[in-house]
């Protein structure tokens, strides 16, 4: 069972306290976007074998959304961070690098 | 290949079973094949089998990272049905179900197909309307199903509790020709028939790269060396995104864990398959007497073939309201598989941005029932470049918005 730390209220909880919200850092293109961009936003997914950045919601807690860095092959959680950002903060990148040297996810590494 | 028959059993009994052959060869890979299929699960082996049987293409290799049939083919709850809402789904699933009826004779391998009937319970007013709609759609598609009331439900499934406090049984969608089959035997039967046609099934051989030249596939690199091919079929279920990445494109899908569990064996108590989509559980009794229980998927991306404990707990907790006798049973084993789920819960049998490379994936939580039909259609697509069964299942339907929306019709138990 996953154990996640909510960066919004500081509570550490089991996965039953949270709700998985899918891939993080998806860009929703605005007026004038192409079919490709819309398909990208709605359906295309990294679905990586390894390091993944994803959204979670603290459903049975503070109710806030946040982001988590997690490994899909070992279920190890590298860290959680605020959802109010376009990319993971440096300490999260460092935490992933410490465990998975040479990792990359989309344009982040 | 020596045929299996009653006579063969008698013959071997008289000579201490010394004459049985290995069911399939385990060759080293050749330098080049006409077609390489990646993934020796049910779908991959069925694709290879129908390439040989229907199109005479037998210079084929089926490459498998682990052991044959060790992925989702060996991890499902063996339910076979075809009562889908949308026409393209009904066509391919009904093709599949009808192929299952004669598969044992076709393969000369007993797959123990048991058309015991599949019942999908309606436990809310919404489900009553949904399943009546499906029954009407099935009538138009030529798939025999019927809507039955609670009295008939109790008659064909006496262990059910109709008056559960939260989820009373209000009726159900009954497909009498649905049922179960022996899942391993399906993979083994196809493997034996493929090997007999001269195809090479190469186990413990992982594909590490897909080689392309000027946008066309030319071969794969594997842990047993490079192998060239004219056409490549990716039939790797939960790892489809990984294979696609090797070939340089992405797929509209995510991989999640789905789990199942079985109870201790008990005397025959239920001779049909029951699916309860409102409470996310489905149930049948195996020939060994174990109650086979399946539930919902975990919500997050996962490649570990393990599910969360709380999902198994939720499934069993919900089912014991409708099946109170289950509360007395001990659970023996639990396992998980990695399922490939698309945005509309329908599969992709498709060409790809790489010429000569095809994908058969996205069967999600309901692939076992589709094995023969999927192989039949994928073989036609790979041999002829098109198939009436796969036209609607292209990976580009998401861009066009041309979904085959089964998430409503199938619910979770798919």
Give your account of this protein's structure:
The complex is a heterodimer of chains A (109) and B (414). A four-stranded antiparallel beta sheet of chain A has the order 3-4-5-6. In chain A, strands 1-2 form a two-stranded antiparallel ribbon. By secondary structure, chain A is α+β, with helices and mostly antiparallel strands. Chain A has helices at 35-42, 90-99, and strands at residues 3-5, 12-14, 19-23, 51-57, 65-71, 77-82. Chain A contains two helices and six strands, in the order E-E-E-H-E-E-E-H. Chain A has a single domain (3-99), classed as 2-Layer Sandwich (Folate-binding fold), CATH 3.30.2270. In chain A, 17% of the residues lie in helices and 28% in strands. Chain B has 414 residues and is α/β, with parallel strands linked by helices. Helices cover 30% and strands 27% of the residues of chain B. In chain B, the strands form three sheets. In chain B, strands 1, 2, 8, 9, 10, 11, 17 and 18 form an eight-stranded mixed beta sheet that branches. In chain B, helix 3 packs across helix 10 (371-384). Chain A binds chain B through residues 1-2, 15-16, 19-20, 22-23, 35-36, 38-39, 42-49, 52, 54, 70, 72-75, and chain B through 239, 241-242, 250-255, 298-304, 306, 308-310, 342-343, 398-400.
């Amino acid at each position: 069972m996953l154990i996640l730390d909510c960066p919004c209220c500081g509570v550490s909880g089991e996965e039953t306290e949270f709700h998985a919200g899918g891939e993080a850092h998806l860009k929703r293109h605005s007026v004038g976007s192409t079919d490709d961009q819309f398909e990208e936003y709605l359906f295309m997914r990294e679905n990586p074998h390894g390091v993944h950045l994803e959204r979670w919601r603290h459903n049975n807690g503070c109710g806030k959304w946040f982001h988590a860095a997690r490994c899909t092959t070992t279920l190890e959680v590298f860290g959680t961070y605020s959802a109010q950002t376009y990319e993971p903060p440096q300490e999260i990148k460092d935490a992933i690098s410490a465990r998975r040297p040479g990792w990359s996810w989309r344009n982040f590494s | 290949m020596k045929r299996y028959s009653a006579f063969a059993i008698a013959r071997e009994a008289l000579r201490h079973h010394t004459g049985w052959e290995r069911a399939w060869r385990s060759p080293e890979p050749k330098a080049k094949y006409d077609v390489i299929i990646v993934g020796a699960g049910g779908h991959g082996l069925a694709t290879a089998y129908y390439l040989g049987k229907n199109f005479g293409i037998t210079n084929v290799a089926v490459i498998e990272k682990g052991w044959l049939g060790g992925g989702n083919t060996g991890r499902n709850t063996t339910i076979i049905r075809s009562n889908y809402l949308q026409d393209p789904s009904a066509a391919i699933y009904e093709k599949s179900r009808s192929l299952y009826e004669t598969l044992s004779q076709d393969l000369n391998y007993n797959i123990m197909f048991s058309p015991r009937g599949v019942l999908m319970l309606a436990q809310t007013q919404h489900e009553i309307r949904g399943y009546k709609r499906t029954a009407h759609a099935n009538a138009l598609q030529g798939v025999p199903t019927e809507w039955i009331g609670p009295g008939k439900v109790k008659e064909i499934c006496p262990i059910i509790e109709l008056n559960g406090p939260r989820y009373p049984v209000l009726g159900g969608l009954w497909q009498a020709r649905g049922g179960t089959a022996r899942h391993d035997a399906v993979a083994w039967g196809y493997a034996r028939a493929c090997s007999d046609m001269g195809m090479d099934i190469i186990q413990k051989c992982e594909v590490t790269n897909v080689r392309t030249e000027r946008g066309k596939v030319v071969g794969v690199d594997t842990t047993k060396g490079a192998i060239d091919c004219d056409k490549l079929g990716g039939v790797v279920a939960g790892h489809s995104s990984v294979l696609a990445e090797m070939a340089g494109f992405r797929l509209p899908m995510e991989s999640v864990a789905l789990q199942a569990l079985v109870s201790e064996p008990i005397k025959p108590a239920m001779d049909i398959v029951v699916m309860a989509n409102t409470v996310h559980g489905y149930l049948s009794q195996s020939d060994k007497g174990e109650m086979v229980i399946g539930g919902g998927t975990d919500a997050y991306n996962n490649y570990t073939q393990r599910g969360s404990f709380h999902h198994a707990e939720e499934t069993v907790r919900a089912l014991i309201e409708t099946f109170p006798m289950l509360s007395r049973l001990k659970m023996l084993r639990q396992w998980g598989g990695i399922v490939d789920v698309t945005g509309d819960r329908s599969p992709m049998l498709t060409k790809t941005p790489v010429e000569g490379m095809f994908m058969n994936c996205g069967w999600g939580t309901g692939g076992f029932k589709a094995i023969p039909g999927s192989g039949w259609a994928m073989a036609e697509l790979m041999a002829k470049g098109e198939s009436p069964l796969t036209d609607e299942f292209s990976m580009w339907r998401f861009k066009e918005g041309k979904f085959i929306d089964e998430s409503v019709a199938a619910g979770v138990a798919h």
